[in-house]
């Protein structure tokens, strides 16, 4: 777990969300399996239990996890079309980074880490590819 940086411009809940997102992407928290309890996550990250729900809400908005009353927080499985789109976006990002200036025109500037830390991928490009792949 990367240490949280207190006093950083990035709020703690976003740092926690990023750490949890990374663990989901790398398979530490498998799809369909529950996350640890809020209290366990708070102890693990050394924060108040009130910081964790905000981080979980961020992940819910991104459809990484789903919260069910009485069942806890479950990691959602990525749709096959999303997985294909992420792979395609990673390949295109690699090609674009090799081209230098072409990368700036193909990417909206909103880079994010995907695929277990295999590199940054343009989120806008990933969304467009996901829409195209899902239509097939």
- Gross geometry: globular
CATH architecture classification of the largest domain: Orthogonal Bundle
> Helix and strand string, N-terminal first?
HHHEEHHEEH
Low-pLDDT ranges: 101-119
Determine the CATH topology of the largest domain: Arc Repressor Mutant, subunit A
Question: Sheet bearing the most strands, described?
Answer: 2 strands, antiparallel
CATH class of the largest domain: Mainly Alpha
Please state the structural category: mainly alpha
Give, in spatial order, the strands making up the sheet with the most strands: 1-2
Description:
The chain is mainly alpha-helical. The protein folds into 2 domains: about 10-75, Orthogonal Bundle (Arc Repressor Mutant, subunit A); about 80-135, no CATH class. Helix content is about 55%, strand content about 10%. It is built from 6 helices and 4 strands; from the N terminus they run αααββααββα. The chain has helices at about 10-25, 40-45, 50-60, 80-100, 100-105, 125-135; strands at about 65-70, 70-75, 110-115, 120. A two-stranded antiparallel sheet has the order 1-2. The protein has a two-stranded antiparallel sheet with strand order 3-4. A hairpin with a 3-residue loop joins β1 (about 65-70) and β2. The chain is globular and about 40 Å long. It starts with 11 loop residues before the first helix and ends with a helix. About 20% of the residues are buried. The model is unreliable at about 100-120 (pLDDT under 50).
